[in-house]
Amino acid sequence: MEENPSENERGMWKLSVDGSFCFTGSGAGLVLTSLDGWTLEYDLRFGFKATNNEIEWEALIAGLTIVKHLEVQKIEASSDSQLVVGLARGEYEAQEDSIAKYLSHF
C-alpha cells in the first residue's frame, strides 16, 4: 500500500467479484477493501439457475449495493468475466435479453 496516495486514490475502495455455478447450485464471492485496508468479505448463494456471466453480474450488483449503503464515493471494481467487464466499460453490446437487463440495472 502507498503511504501517500494520489488525490485520485484517496477514498478509493476496491471491489473484487467472482462467481461460479455447478449442478448443486450457484454462488459468488466478493471482497470489498478500503485504501486503509478495511476489508469486507461476502459469500453469496443463489437459489436459481444462472450462467456464469449472470452470477458475475449478480455479484457485481450485490457489491455495488453494499458500496452504496456504505456511502463509498469512489470504487474500482474487478471481475474475471471478460463479458461483464467489456459490457460495463461499454466495449461490448449485450446480445441476450437477460444480459441486457443486468446491464441496464448496472
TrEMBL record:
<dbReference type="Pfam" id="PF13456">
    <property type="entry name" value="RVT_3"/>
</dbReference>
<dbReference type="GO" id="GO:0003676">
    <property type="term" value="F:nucleic acid binding"/>
</dbReference>
<feature type="domain" description="RNase H type-1">
    <location>
        <begin position="26"/>
        <end position="105"/>
    </location>
</feature>
<dbReference type="InterPro" id="IPR002156">
    <property type="entry name" value="RNaseH_domain"/>
</dbReference>
<dbReference type="InterPro" id="IPR036397">
    <property type="entry name" value="RNaseH_sf"/>
</dbReference>
<protein>
    <submittedName>
        <fullName>RVT_3 domain-containing protein</fullName>
    </submittedName>
</protein>
<dbReference type="GO" id="GO:0004523">
    <property type="term" value="F:RNA-DNA hybrid ribonuclease activity"/>
</dbReference>
<dbReference type="InterPro" id="IPR012337">
    <property type="entry name" value="RNaseH-like_sf"/>
</dbReference>
